[in-house]
Write a structure and sequence with these properties.
Elements (H helix, E strand, L loop, with lengths): L8 H10 L7 H21 L5 H28 L5
Helix pairs in contact: 1-2, 1-3, 2-3
Amino acid sequence: MAVKIKNYEKLITSIANEHKTSGVPLDQLIIAGQKGLSQAIELSKENSAFDFNKSVSWFIRQSILKSTNEIDDTNMDTSSKPKK
């Protein structure tokens, strides 16, 4: 299955825009979305029963959410340290 990443740029950008208030820069959200797309592509190569079209947005969204959670964890770590 040949998937052109360029065909999914609008979807990735749309999902990334939903999370632009998370504190993560939009360009980083888009990169995270591209990683999610890559994961979906790899899984579809490994598993012929995998329904790519139904799952691609889920993988993109999960990857973006993971990037927003990582920034939340980083902020939590620094704010929970006692001040001197």
